[in-house]
Design goal:
Strand order of the largest sheet: 2-5-6-9-1-10-11-12-13
Number of strands: 14
Bound molecules: adenosine-5'-diphosphate, magnesium ion, zinc ion
Number of domains: 3
Shape: elongated
Radius of gyration: 29 Å
Number of helices: 19
Length: 515
């Protein structure tokens, strides 16, 4: 039995009144190239352990690496999309450290000569304002293998009786994207952090360079946080002139919501220490999704400890300017421009569009409209129940829908059934419930649950007659011209028909009979 001491934390509002947070985000993205960074091994996720390995990615003596051209192209396209300079000449470097899942005992990475540097990404915040995240660099490296700890309760090394290593992931191309210190966010630091990772994920998806599945580890985020004394407004000159405090680096924060929560927690934790006269040590920390706290990892190594030196087995990467310009032509429409175009096409108000962007549902709605739904219906259905449930699960809508197998085609099908008069709104909601419960496509759910509007006009007319006969007072009011009174009768007709009547048709019939 071990007890973990929980750190004291300061109330968040008090923390950001006393201190000015500064962030730095490092995002690792696995490229979805067919082969690894320096050898021809396959990269497919979920293969038999150690079936996608060779002398090069196992680091056997004599194995010689060759750079994956596709990976370099992806790195350059990412750099260009992030408004970076692209190096005319750069090298790989060996980052030396021992870890069982790293068979060469060094990671082939880039150090002081990254392929892309000095860029920015404009990120839209919830209130519609924009924050510019300065990008320090995007560099190429390779992933490590994966350790599996057997015998413990938690899957962590602690308490395990042995460990297994799978080298299939060793050597998969990674791009690490590092921001400059993000200043001037004030209390909105957690929101800005999340918005940046979300915008970056959208951009990488649009570039089609990675699966960007945070839950599968193809996109991973480390969050650096430091505090400095608060002396004025977050963007004021006095405030920006205060030297940066010591940072902690919280590792592997693997969902958008966790990014926000981890940053918020670190701000409260560090504030309590500094306020009590304590010191922040530069260390890595671990995020615990379940308890919502970070705990101390290891004391951070300095770059010196890694004994970086240029990789002697690889030639430098020197993309010609023609190549770079040709790759620039392959970039997708910039996200902000795309958003404006889609808003125009869909006829959404600013507020409606902002809701869609904040829900992370732009791409889903685009695909749903392409599958035949109206933009209004696509927005209504995605931002309704699926969005509410994703929130309740602490997931973003894209991940949540993918996990349930809910697709844009399903929503378009549902909308089609409503437009064709086969479902009314409340039946459509029940059908969607069935789809969310994994019962199949909307058509299959409607069939299996018997959810379909009764198309038999005779049945509807009989119900209307019964209801009119049972409510002579209401009927008299309608005859006197009080058309609003029809609502009460429609409700009863719907009840008689177990919700499976077209309310519009029922209304027409009632009015026709009473006027
Ligand atoms: P490391 O090797 O420690 O991972 P990197 O240079 O890769 O270092 O990344 C460090 C990240 O932390 C960068 O995003 C950088 O902008 C950010 N950073 C540096 N100093 C601070 C600070 N004082 N407070 C917050 N973030 C910082
Ligand atoms: Mg780093
Ligand atoms: Zn290999």
């Amino acid at each position: 039995m071990t007890t973990v001491a929980t750190d004291a934390v300061m109330d968040y509002d008090e923390a950001v009144a006393k201190f000015d947070p500064v962030l730095g985000l490092e995002v690792h993205v696995e490229l979805h190239t067919a082969t690894k960074m320096f050898c021809g091994c396959a990269t497919e996720f979920g293969a038999e352990p150690n079936s996608q390995v060779c002398p090069v990615c196992l680091g056997l003596p004599g194995g010689l690496p060759v750079v994956n051209e596709k990976a370099v192209e992806s790195a350059i396209r990412i750099g260009l999309a992030l408004n970076c300079e692209i190096a005319e000449w750069c090298r790989f470097a060996r980052k030396n450290y021992f870890y069982p899942d790293m068979p060469k005992n060094f990671q082939t990475s880039q150090y002081d000569e990254p392929i892309a540097y000095e860029g920015y990404l404009d990120v839209e915040l919830e209130d519609g304002s924009t924050y510019r995240v300065e990008i320090e660099r995007a560099h190429m490296e390779e992933d490590t293998g994966k350790s599996l700890h057997i015998g413990g309760a938690t899957g962590r090394i602690h308490g395990a009786d042995h460990s297994l290593v799978d080298y299939n992931r060793a050597g998969i191309p990674l791009i690490e994207i590092v921001t400059k210190p993000m200043v001037g966010t004030g209390e909105r630091a957690p929101e800005v952090a999340k918005a940046y990772v979300s915008a970056l994920r959208d951009l990488l998806r649009a570039l089609d360079v990675s699966d960007v599945r945070m839950e599968q580890g193809s996109m991973r985020c480390d969050a650096n946080v430091s505090l400095r004394p608060r002396v004025g407004e977050p963007t004021s000159e006095e405030q920006l002139a205060v030297p940066l405090g010591t940072r902690t680096e919280t590792k592997n924060v693997n969902s958008l919501r966790s990014v926000e929560r981890a940053v918020r927690y670190e701000i409260s934790r560090q504030a309590a220490i500094l306020d009590a006269g304590g010191t922040i040590f530069q260390e890595t920390r671990h995020w615990h999704e379940d308890t919502g706290i970070t705990t101390s990892g290891r004391v951070k190594s300095d770059a010196d400890d890694y004994r970086y030196f240029p990789e002697p087995d690889l030639v430098p990467v020197a993309p010609t300017r023609e190549t770079v310009e040709a790759l620039r032509q392959t970039l997708p429409e910039p996200p902000a421009q795309r958003r404006r175009r889609l808003q125009d096409d869909w006829g959404y108000s600013d507020l409606e569009m902002r809701d869609v962007v904040n829900a992370g549902a732009v791409a889903l709605i685009e695909e749903t409209v392409a599958a035949g739904a109206s933009p209004a219906a696509a927005r209504k259905w995605w931002l309704g129940e699926p969005s509410r449930r994703a929130n309740a699960e602490g997931q973003d809508i894209v991940t949540y829908a993918a996990g349930l197998g809910l697709t844009p085609a399903h929503i378009a099908e549902l909308d089609g059934m409503v437009t064709a008069g086969r479902l009314n709104d409340s039946l459509a909601r029940q059908v969607l419930d069935g789809v969310l419960a994994g019962e199949g496509t909307p058509t299959a759910v409607a069939d299996a649950r018997g959810l379909e509007l009764v198309q038999d006009d005779g049945a509807l007319e009989a119900a209307v007659d019964t209801v009119i006969a049972a409510n002579p007072d209401v009927a008299a009011k309608i005859r006197d011209g009080k058309v609003q009174a029809a609502g009460a009768l429609i409700g009863q007709v719907m009840k008689q028909m177990k919700g499976q009547a077209d309310a519009g048709k029922a209304r027409e019939l009632i009015l026709a009979k009473l006027q």
